[in-house]
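Hi V.,

You were right to ask for the full record rather than a summary. Here it is.
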Amino acid sequence: MRRHPAGLYVLFFTEMWERFGFYCMSAIFLLYMKDKENGHPWLQKNAAQILGLYLGFVYFTPFFGGILADQVLGYRLAIYLGGILMAAGYFLLAVDHIASFGAGLLCIILGNGLFKPNISTLVGKLYPQGDPRLDSAYTIFYMGINIGAFISPLTATILCNYFRKGTFDGYHVAFAAAGIGMVISLITFFLCRKWVIAEDRPTAPSAVNSKEDNIPPAVQLHRHFALLIIFAVVILFWMAFKQNAGTFNLWFKDHTVRTPQPWLRQAIEAVHLQRFLLDSEGMLGKTLQSMINPLFVVLFSPLVVLFWAMMRKQKLELSTPGKVALGMVLTAAAFGLMYIGGISGGDTGRVTGWYLVGAYAILTLGELSLSPMGLSLVSKLAARKWRSAWMGGWFAATALGGYLSGAIGGFWEKWSHSSFFAFLAASSIVAFCVMMLFYRYTNRAMPK
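Predicted structure:
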């Protein structure tokens, strides 16, 4: 199998450091607003609403950022502008003033809208149409995202605990660290730009993508309809998946048997890390739990790439829509396992934490079968001159799924927990059935 171009690894590290900054800020954002020592009563009172508005805008602006890049700015300029805005936003959050806080959020929202869809689009630009390496390329790229997501919460926790001495200096240092991560991302992209494809506008001529210039309108319309079907399916996926940041936390807290592990605390104290990790009550546990999913992504991604490479040699590799369908089956299995955990504990008792760990592992495999494949499908099916806009549409579908996840989460206290998990398993099966209903249609849309 041919090796991946060097540009993929440039984009890998660029995105890794960008996501480090994004998740470093996200790990402490709500804690910062709600902390009673904050001194900003308005933030404490409105923290949940601010978080909801921030998440809504930060995931919808990539659609508009994609349009701007496609039609006006070009991909690289959009990435530079987006990165500068995001870095400025993180540094503004590091200033203890309510006006700086608002300006910082605005910069992050606008910057993410410009950066996120275009860095993902550039991955696809590295490969000619129909290249079988594209799915694995996006899986590798996705691993970079999750390395950043894995190391950032622990970094934020360490900084908050080390610098916090009765003040909020720790939070502000962590926000500044997020800004430094974004600066490293920009420097990486700038210094290694020669390895990223030279094409900067979708209308510019390119040897790599020359086949895309003569696609009949009817064929392109077919491809766009196929993308809309995929988007509808992934909304249901994200509705289920994002429970890992919501009801999974509640399940972990209230319904798992957590045997104390004194050796962990003793190990931390033995190497004198207690000042970094144990000062803030509850923060370490929350941090470690938030690292489970990205850790599994980092561990499983190389295995997934290797598995599909072996299947490709045997001519048994699933098509990209087939991988999306597989992702929904795995998602249903993960919530099926949680359903079993629910009924095992009578919905109110505590059960072994291995139900949750197993669900995380299966759900991560579902994520790797679906999320990188969605990025790959946009690169394969979207019209060349609107590719970043469609990439933004993918993130908008993600945002809608996240919103539905929160809405469904409101039933956690109203339904039995087993019924709650059964509903999510059933919704994932429905998404799988929709995918299979249109399976031939989406497969026919794939470039040959």
